[in-house]
Design brief:
Helix content is about 30%, strand content about 20%. With about 270 residues, it is of the alpha/beta class. The longest helix is centred in the first third of the chain and has 13 residues.
Amino acid sequence: MSRDFHYDVFLSHNQADKPRVRRLAERLQAAGVRVWFDEWVIKPGDDIYLAIERGLEASRTLVLCLSPAALGSDWVGLERSTVLFRDPSNTGRRFIPVQLADCSLPDTLRRYKLFDFRRDSSRAFQRLLAACLPGEPLNRETESPQPVNGSVQLDRPDLRILYDNADLIRAEQIRARLESAGFRVELGMLPLKNARSGFGNARIVALLLSTNTKRNLFQKLGKEHGLGRESRLLVLCFGEAPVPKKLRTEYSIAFQDGKNGGLQQLFIELSV
């Protein structure tokens, strides 16, 4: 039976790792993830242990941050927090052990596949972010760069957002949220003088539609007009924006101003 959780992620960690875990919490929150992080939730005078228990109960995913410090004298307390999430009967929850530094694992964790976060790269964060979102598998293999026109492009942008001038603020807001999560994002204004050069070499091209978007801007857009096989095409629809007929076969993501549902789905698509 499914249930709603107040938090997407509970960050369990040792105080010695606080600065690094705080940065992780900020990046996850900026990406639209609802994070339980002790500094943000526990107030002066609160019962710390009761607050932690309530936070665990209200969280979908437990991210257990592992390091030599975490596996030291504080390990008994940290291990106790994982019991609820390691119970196979709790199918709606997820347990993700994250390795922050080289350390020897206790026997209770050896059965679980570690998430290697020793190198805090943008790709590692993107994979962790995807794992923290509802319904996403943790162990997604990262694809190797593929040849484009005979050469391997190592620095391809993850996303290029094409927008009407009336939607500039929305496009910039999406770019800011995605870049804070480590994705590389470009913006391009419609109409395009040349479809191929306008699409660029991004892995994914997203067409931003709203009720403000001029319909004639899409007359020359679509895979048959310059979008090569090296890029995927998405349509980002705000509100009740109608999708032009030639774009209805493309994958669409519904957005609503002030809500994170569409943004989280976009995170998932970018992490594929």
